[in-house]
Design brief:
The chain contains six helices and 13 strands. The strands form three sheets. An eight-stranded mixed β-sheet has the order 2-1-3-4-13-12-11-8. The protein is an alpha/beta fold and 208 residues long.
Length: 208
């Protein structure tokens, strides 16, 4: 598939960067992993992966100067961005995981799973689960309702504005597993580990 654009996977030291790049390669497209501000500034599409601690992620992004570059690209230039796992959580206002303030691109907070049946529902939520679509979006176009996606997380996003919730998932209770506002997209699951459905979702994002 021919998509003439510069896709940059943002490297701030926290994420499965190569896995994301390989998944994009499997759908026939190229991407560049980079921490370089000049490269990020030239991107047509941005992917913000992330695994680990919310506050550490904020600190690394700010120390590198990537924080300000992303705010300019996403908010002012309206560059499409996809946050994956911690990358999605960083788009919220803040998190119970540390005292740092997030990007605030969404009116949302990040909270730890509060399950009552701790024998049945282990934290972290780890493994395959399905999405409940909340609104139409090109990101989830032609993805079957029964499709499974791979999750690994102890915290999840709690949206204050229901219109931002693109899809939810049930793990004892319902939580936001995909969010969207204008050019900003976030998914709690790992599309790069979710086989055909995940690759289709990545292709959808890169085709927007």
């Amino acid at each position: 598939m021919e998509i003439n654009q510069k896709v940059v996977i943002v490297d701030y030291g926290m994420g499965n960067l190569r896995s994301v790049q390989k998944a994009i390669k499997r759908v026939g497209l190229d991407s560049e992993i980079s921490p370089n501000l000049d490269v990020i500034k030239q991107a047509d599409k941005l992917i913000l992966p992330g695994v680990g601690h919310f506050a550490n992620g904020v600190k690394k992004l700010k120390e590198s100067g990537i924080w300000e570059a992303l705010n300019k690209k996403v908010i002012h230039e309206k560059t499409p961005v996809l946050g994956i796992c911690l990358g999605m959580q960083l788009m919220a206002k803040g998190s119970e995981e540390g005292n740092e303030t997030g990007f605030g691109w969404f009116d949302a907070e990040v909270v730890k799973f509060k399950v009552s049946d701790t024998l049945k529902y282990k934290v972290p939520h780890m493994g395959w689960n399905q999405l409940i679509k909340k609104k139409k979006s090109g990101l989830l176009s032609n993805i079957a309702p029964e499709a499974n996606f791979y999750f690994v997380h102890s915290f999840h996003v709690l949206c204050n504005d229901a219109k931002d919730e693109l899809a939810s998932t049930i793990y004892e209770y319902e939580f936001a597993s995909a969010i969207q506002k204008e050019n900003i997209y976030g998914v709690q699951f790992h599309p790069e580990k979710s086989h055909d459905a995940g690759e289709k979702m990545l292709l959808n994002f890169l085709s927007l």
